[in-house]
Amino acid sequence: MNTLQKPSARRLIQLLRSQGPVSRLKLADLLDVQPSTVTRIVNQLLDDGLVVEEADPNRAGRRGYPSKLLQLRPMGLLSAGVFIDPERYYTCIVNALGEVLSEETSSITDRGFSQLMELIGASVDRQTRQLGLQPDRFIGCGISYPGQHTSKPGIVRQTQYFSEWPEIDASKDFAPYFDMPVHQLNDAKCACLAELLFGSCRSVRNFNYVWLSHGIGGAAVIDQSLYLGKSASAAEFGGLFPKSQPRPSGSDLLATIKEAGLAADNLEHISKADLQHESILNWVDRVEQQLKWLSLVITRTMSPDAIVLGGRLPDAIFSELIERLSASKSLGEDHFGPHPTFIRAEADKKPHLGAAALPLYLTTSPNAG
Amino acid sequence: MNTLQKPSARRLIQLLRSQGPVSRLKLADLLDVQPSTVTRIVNQLLDDGLVVEEADPNRAGRRGYPSKLLQLRPMGLLSAGVFIDPERYYTCIVNALGEVLSEETSSITDRGFSQLMELIGASVDRQTRQLGLQPDRFIGCGISYPGQHTSKPGIVRQTQYFSEWPEIDASKDFAPYFDMPVHQLNDAKCACLAELLFGSCRSVRNFNYVWLSHGIGGAAVIDQSLYLGKSASAAEFGGLFPKSQPRPSGSDLLATIKEAGLAADNLEHISKADLQHESILNWVDRVEQQLKWLSLVITRTMSPDAIVLGGRLPDAIFSELIERLSASKSLGEDHFGPHPTFIRAEADKKPHLGAAALPLYLTTSPNAG
DNA sequence: TTTTTAATTTGCGCTTCGCAATATAATGCT
DNA sequence: AGCATTATATTGCGAAGCGCAAATTAAAAA
């Protein structure tokens, strides 16, 4: 696996992810190197079992040496992911393509740190064994949960739900419970990585992710690499919507639902009928305006190619918001000209997938790790 | 000058700029390479006349081989700068350290594009000859003026003052008037480059520049490299303050001054007495609030290490604003924890210096050009 | 004068990559 | 079938960059 230390190999892997199966010649063109260079790098990656070759079906019937397409080998890289909710935890094993090989979830009864981590560590271990894999074949375990980072790098502010937790230092506090390297990042930023590696942003250079769950988070990707800023708090869009005011968050939606006397008591239980209720329609109208404003702010600061919306709100709401934002002529006063593209996140349904994306990102992205 | 193509040489030059005179050993440490590598790169740079060696005065009296300090050779790189105002143009010749070797300015009478460019080209030419230099020793000429970039890359939207100008395409329209490569970027982003290369931000990794002149502009530097975003419109902070409303711009200040019946009719003519006038004091109060809000927005999106204030407002106003922003406990509701540092720009007095910084940046920065 | 110390340089070998020549596997032509 | 043509991939060679270890240099200290 030493190959992953080499920047050229990482760049190649990145291209395989974004450009699907490609020939060596195309890769050489995209990387702006000689075909011979690609051959050499690919040979190492083949040796290490990180990529596989297959025949090019579209190439049949044409003249010349038939190109062989290269692809990431699904089992070439394995990663574990852990997402910790206030109420449940989710764990999974994921391959190089972001396919979930196995997952478990359980509600959290005992919120003590070490008790919970014992359970989670055991869950990852169990799935590893059930798949017949060795922990040392894993590139790492990513841990994700709602919360902001403190000014000390790598340390996460205790979330409101886990007030008895210590301030988490990923490298020290999580490590004892896993047989592999452990990394952590908050839910929004992990979700963004899933989008970058497996989802709709595989070939978008610069984008901003707006994460609407119970709370509001976000992430920024610049040049296909996660930009964290000072104290890993870049793109913390939640901070632009004061908690004392109505805001475009899941909690706020649930409060609206409750006020309207509807039944749903959690984001997964909102029915189609609920969405037609007037107070919810009003909620969406308001959130549309708030996101328009946020998009203007993002456009005026980061000026990304795309703004991606994802999170745990009902799918129908996301679709509606994307549609309305895409259709809007202007994002605000004095704004004219083209918007960034608005994109619906594809990989936000399983937050533990985002967590699993983190080790893959750190070890395969050219500018990270 | 072929040395400047090499990334390692560029990285070394960047360090010389930010770390002042340094020994080879220190450079090796900073670059995380072997001292022998530094020796080899430095030898080339010495050959090319880009750096010079000098004795280390602090080293006298101590044992061992005395370290020799390396520095950029001032005349090793030359650049021309042009700033075009609605009313005047400014031209200059600048060396590698950002020292202005020569400058000229003149009011603009004929606003026709080719007439004006003839004059400007002649001005650069004249100064070049008066200094006894050859145009081919120049690394380029930078052109800067107020205005936003259009969606076509490299094309600047015609400014309101030069409505008869075509949409400028730097590489084509400017080139004929100069005997060296020409580059262009708007005033705010050029000013930011001056700050990055010569001013207060030489060793700040990520920062945002807030440019307050007649209008409002801005720029973003990520990892010591200018981030432009889509259509080079990242950090166009002016777009966050609608023109129909009071806003923190020089034009707005001048309007306030006029309304108060004060004499000053341009930003350079504001007197100390004027600044004590109640309406101006109120103006500063309002602008403080607007910049606080902008700083919150910047912090929540880019999360930079520093926010830099510069432009053509009176110095006293900048000092006052920096002081107040630095002292503020919070930038807005729900904001706590540390701010970014607020910094007063050092290199904003001569906008043509910013223009001259552009070719230097493009040819010596590791991630540009 | 010799020793010690610290910064720099030199020699050697490994790795990476571009360039040009070659190999390979398919189709098309006679 | 046999040979030409074509497109893709590979191999061999040489140049460049860099780490490592040994050598060199210029100063102070013994």
Automatic annotation (TrEMBL), chains A, B:
Residues forming the HTH marR-type domain are 12-58
**Which CDD domains does this entry report, sorted A to Z?**
ASKHA_ATPase_ROK, HTH_ARSR
Q: Which Pfam families match?
A: MarR, ROK
Gene3D superfamilies in the record = 3.30.420.40, Winged helix-like DNA-binding domain superfamily/Winged helix DNA-binding domain (1.10.10.10)
Judging by the UniProt lineage, the source's domain of life is Bacteria
In alphabetical order, the GO MF annotations are: DNA-binding transcription factor activity
| SUPFAM superfamilies in the record | Actin-like ATPase domain, Winged helix' DNA-binding domain
Q: Which InterPro entries match?
A: ArsR-like_HTH (IPR011991), ATPase_NBD (IPR043129), HTH_MarR-typ (IPR000835), ROK (IPR000600), WH-like_DNA-bd_sf (IPR036388), WH_DNA-bd_sf (IPR036390)
Q: Which family does it belong to?
A: Belongs to the ROK (NagC/XylR) family.
Q: What is this protein called?
A: Making large colonies protein
Task: Provide the species name.
Answer: Roseibium album
